Every structure is written in C-alpha cells, then in structure tokens.
Amino acid sequence: MNGELLAILEQLEREKGIKKEVLIAAVEAAILSAARKVIDVKPDEEISVELDRETGKIRAKKGKEEITSGDFSRIAASTAKQVIIQKIREAEKEVIFTEFQAKVGQIVSGAVYRFERGNIIVDLLGKAEGILPRQEQSPKEEFKQGDRIKAYCLEVKKDTKGPQIILSRTHPNFIKKLFELEVPEIYEGIVEIKSISRLPGERTKISVWSKNDKVDSVGACVGMRGQRVKNIVSELQGEKIDIVPWNEDISEYIRLALLPAQIQEIHLDKVNKKAEVIVADDQLSLAIGKHGQNVKLASKLVEWELDIRTKEEAPLIQETKRAEKKEEEEEAVFSDLCSLPGVGEKTKDMLGKAGYKGIEDIAHADPEKLSELKGIGKKKALRLIEEAKKIIAK
C-alpha cells in the first residue's frame, strides 16, 4: 500500500501537473487531521505525521511515541482518502488558475462544448472550461457544438467552483493577437501595430508602422497574394479589415485612414483635435461609409474628430466664417469711440472715465452733460451725438 501511494502521487503529478510535494503535504495534513479526532492528546502533547519520500510509509507520533493503533489506521485511512481527494481538487484548481492567469492577454484555443443562456462554454483542450459571454461574441458569427474556436483570454477569476476563464472575440486586442500569430514581422517587433478601431462583425481598421525601412508594414500584414490577411478574415467569419500605414503627419494619417475615399482638403483644429475633411460629391458616401462606419472607425483610429463635407458645402462654410468675422469687426468698430470724428486716444480715455464706453452711450448722451467735459463744447457734443446716431443707423 505504501509503495502504491507514492506511485499514485507520481501519476497524479504527471497527469494533472500537480507537484508531488504539494500532494504529500496534503496527505500529511489529512492524516494529522484524522489523528486528532481519534487520539486523546494532552494539552502539552503534540501529534506529528510524516510520509517517507522513499518508501511511502506513513508514521504518526504522539510526542516521541509512535502510534500503532488499529482504530487509528482504519479511521485515518478513511478520513485521509476524502481529504486527499479534496486537496487534489483544490490543487488542480490552483494549477489551472495559475496556468490561465499567465495567458490573460493571449489567444487560447478550444472547442465549443455547450450553450448556456446565450453564453458559449468552451472546452480548453480538456484542461478547463472557458466562458465566452454573449456581449463578447461578434454579432455576425455563428458556432455549433464541436466547432474549433479561438478567443482572447480577457480575465481569470477565482470562484468556489473553480477558476472562471472569461473569453472574448470582440476585444480589439483579439485582432492584434491574430496578426501576431499570422505575421512574423509583428511577432518579432519589426512591424508595430499603432492603433486599432473595430466594429465587431462588420469592419476593422488597423494602422501599422515598420521600424525597418526595407520592410513594407502593410505588405507584411497582407502577405503574398493577400494570404495572411485572408486567414484572419476567415477566422473572423468575413469581417472586413483595412490596413493603414501609420504616419506622424496627421493630415496624411487622416487621408490614409479614410481610404478608399479620395480626400481633397483637410483643415485642422489642433487645439481641439478636430479636422474638417473636404471631399467631392461622388466621394461623400464612400468617406462616410455604410451607417457611418468608415468615418467612425477612421476617427477612432487617428483619435481626432472628423467632419466630412462636400466640395459644394465648403464655400458655404467659408462664407459663414467670413460673415462672422465681418460681424465681429463691425462690433469692434461700433464699440470703438475713436471711430467718431475728432476723438483721439486722450479724448477716448476721458469719455471712458466719464462713463461713455461705446458709441451707443454717446448717441444717447445728454448734450448738456457731454459738453461739460474738458475740451468738448456744446457744438462738439452735438456733432458727436449726431455722428454716433449715424453709425448706429448704418
């Protein structure tokens, strides 16, 4: 029996990946627990249990005296068996948790095992079960029981029933990892993925940049005859993928992000990270895309707010801006007392101190009070009031 116990522990180590020392510690703890239940122990006495690593023999001692009771042997064996099984299960859960915790942020493979309230339960190569929640599933994809499936390992949580492995096929990093698997240049760090924007099941835009001038970043991702990107599109069950070369010139980056639409002009508001993009009439629907997909994805990719306008709309926008500028200039003139004949900076300052801040104040002024100011007589006061009223009338 002793030799058989060691053989079983060694077999469990090979098959379950649980270290033998962990199992031996579980056995010793189980038997010690059983011993405390069947043996009378004085307050100053200690019980110890040890499993011989060479022979597999179990020795229990009360103080320095070895326990040889038949009752102890039977009860200890029965109790130990139950506790050992429990400890083995706990150890297995810990091994699975540790293994998949290291895989968070990576792609894992498995097979569709069953469907549970909209969630897909995935058998991860017989080691554990993963959960692909409904919200992490692409709306255009369909799976049936037994289908092979790849997914992004999103999170691993501890639970009383065992590790909960949460998977995703909608996360942008799922696309990134698929490209790493398919494109050696990305995996090796020669080509870098700068940004990803995605509408799961519909379309994805990805911007790439090469650290080596001799390596074409887009060509590396597309592959010979487009085979690399075709493999990824196939894995995503038909989701379209646009591969864009990253560019530090934001105008050029925006133009590339909006492809296949052709751009005529780009006006940048760098403070607010907004861009007005001018396109021809026949390019408007292409630039915006179906249900606004193209402009939404491009905007997210470059991290700028993009406003698409047609060539015909552009003059109207510029005219509006010119009208607003003219109005501001007119308001500036209206408020500037120096626009009145005979009013210089000194007179303007004097009028301002007297409470006349703008032309409208002069137009509604009392001639008598205005004439009391130094350097302004009745005639000048009347003339200023008349000129102010003319400006207002205009």
Walkthrough of the structure:
With 394 residues, the protein is of the alpha+beta class. The chain folds into 5 domains: 2-101, 2-Layer Sandwich (N Utilization Substance Protein A, Chain:P, domain 4); 107-170, Beta Barrel (OB fold (Dihydrolipoamide Acetyltransferase, E2P)); 178-243, K homology (KH) domain (GMP Synthetase, Chain A, domain 3, 2-Layer Sandwich), CATH 3.30.300; 247-331, GMP Synthetase, Chain A, domain 3, CATH 3.30.300; 336-393, 5' to 3' exonuclease, C-terminal subdomain (DNA polymerase, domain 1). 45% of the residues lie in helices and 22% in strands. The protein has 15 helices and 14 strands. The strands form 4 sheets. A 5-stranded mixed barrel has the order 4-5-6-8-7. A hairpin with a 2-residue loop joins β4 (107-116) and β5. α4 crosses α7. The longest helix is centred in the first third of the chain and has 32 residues, at 70-101. The model has no long low-confidence stretch (mean pLDDT 85).
